[in-house]
Design goal:
Elements lengths: L1 H30 L2 H8 L3 H14 L4 H25 L3 H9 L1 H34 L7 H14 L2 H14 L2 H8 L4 H6 L9 H14 L2 H13 L7 H33 L6 H12 L1 H34 L13 H18 L5 H27 L2 H4 L6 H25 L1
């Protein structure tokens, strides 16, 4: 009898621990999302080509830029999400309220132009790789890719969209595998973490492009609005910080492995990159069929992850600027303007994909443009997050201000050096 009582107690103890574990898992599932999705979406085909181009041109020499970007990226993303949760409004709406509609219109217009151009290049990149893998003409895939994303957003619940995006974020691990298959010299990789530079316009363009695609303005608008979609509150700021830190760290780890893969193959053999399919094809003879397939899958996954985020951030920014109802958790008929902008962004982007221009060159320059827009947004966020009337007890700490100012100084310095090289 005594043995049965002891066993019963042990069973109850185990059941209690399982309940605590389930609660912990549910808490993580509830709190981890917007930051991780945002970080994953940062590695879109635009980012992949930017990192691949940097690796092909300079090997591992620009890895230090990613190391520098990581803490700055975490802080600026957390600031955008925090001010949205405190104000219970999206970033464009907050800019309109505190800096006027003209400023909000200027920011929104710049964001929309860059986002739609990037959407076009991303759709073209995904279609090109699908054509490469199937043997069909890439043009056949532009409309199906656009339609599939539109269907997911228009007809599926937000929770379904969230799960799909999180799953796609995890699948970006293929770039880690692809990098190892390229057999890099890890000692040389380690040397790339040490800051260095080449006094050339190409080097500064690559550095600004990396920062522009790593700390993209659309990410600030997306995460701020997505936090509100999740019905988050600012009661537990540590959860926000953890989610953001995980997402941004994951984003830059993937980015680093993309540079390593390109540096181990394209740079060593002097191969240039003009298109997404060229980047994948170049790996085939240099790193093997498996690396080529994994790299190709990564481009497709990254496109399907990033396209809803790009179109979504545009729709959020436009809707918030004009005061329209917005949100992926709302029905189409109750947020018509928001969904109209979302679909229009995809449709215009898909039309751009058909144009007889090299999307990769256009795409690379849009990331450089992001590098000029980001410091302006960082100054705006620093101003908002240090205003106690707006943020109350959730104003920036001294450390966050330090990293925010570092981001502005570093980007402005690189932007000025680039302009001086061009002029």
């Amino acid at each position: 009898m005594k043995g049965k009582n002891v066993l019963a107690k042990e069973v109850k103890k185990i059941e209690k621990e399982v309940r605590h574990l389930k609660k912990g898992v549910k808490h993580i599932e509830r709190e981890i999302g917007p930051g991780v999705i945002t970080g994953g979406a940062d590695n879109d085909p635009a980012g992949i080509i930017t990192y691949t181009t940097a690796g092909a041109l300079f090997g591992y020499a620009l890895l230090w830029v990613l190391v520098l970007c990581t803490p700055l990226m975490i802080v600026i993303q957390e600031m955008a999400a925090r001010v949205a949760l405190v104000k219970r409004r999206g970033l464009a709406s907050i800019i309109r309220e505190h800096y006027g509609k003209r400023t909000a219109m200027l920011v929104m217009s710049g964001l929309a132009v860059v986002n739609i151009a990037t959407i076009g290049a991303d759709i073209a990149g995904v279609a090109a790789v699908l054509g490469l893998l199937t043997g069909l003409h890439w043009g056949f895939f532009i409309i199906p890719v656009t339609a599939l994303i539109g269907y997911l957003v228009l007809f599926k619940k937000y929770r379904t969209i969230r799960k799909v995006l999180l799953a796609l974020t995890a699948l970006l691990f293929v770039y880690v595998l692809s990098s190892f298959l390229a057999n890099p010299d890890w000692l040389e990789v380690a040397k790339g973490i040490i800051p260095s530079y080449t006094n050339s316009v190409t080097f500064f363009m690559a550095a600004v492009g990396i920062i522009g695609t790593t700390i993209s303005p659309y990410m600030l608008f997306w995460q701020a609005s997505d936090e509100l979609e999740e019905h988050k509150t600012i009661i537990r700021p540590k959860d926000l910080e953890l989610d953001t830190a995980l997402g941004m760290a994951w984003s830059n780890i993937i980015a680093a492995f993309i540079i390593i893969a390109a540096g181990s193959t394209l740079f060593v053999f002097g191969v240039s990159v003009d298109t997404a399919e060229q980047a994948a094809l170049a790996l085939r003879p240099l790193a093997g069929d498996l690396a080529y397939v994994l790299f190709s899958i990564g481009i497709i996954v990254s496109g399907f992850l990033a396209l809803p985020v790009l179109a979504g951030s545009t729709a959020y920014a436009v809707s918030e600027t004009f005061g329209w109802r917005e949100g992926l958790n709302k029905k189409v008929f109750s947020a018509k303007g928001f969904y109209f902008v979302f679909m229009l962004s995809l449709l215009v982007g898909s039309a751009l994909a058909f144009l007889p221009i090299n999307p990769i060159h256009f795409l690379f320059y849009t990331q450089i443009l992001d590098g000029f827009l980001t410091p302006f947004l960082a100054v705006v966020l620093l101003s908002l997050c240090n205003n106690r009337e707006i943020m109350g007890n959730y104003v920036n700490t001294k450390l966050k201000n330090l990293f925010g100012i570092m981001l502005v100084v570093v980007l402005l310095a690189l932007d000025i050096m680039l302009l001086m090289q061009i002029i």
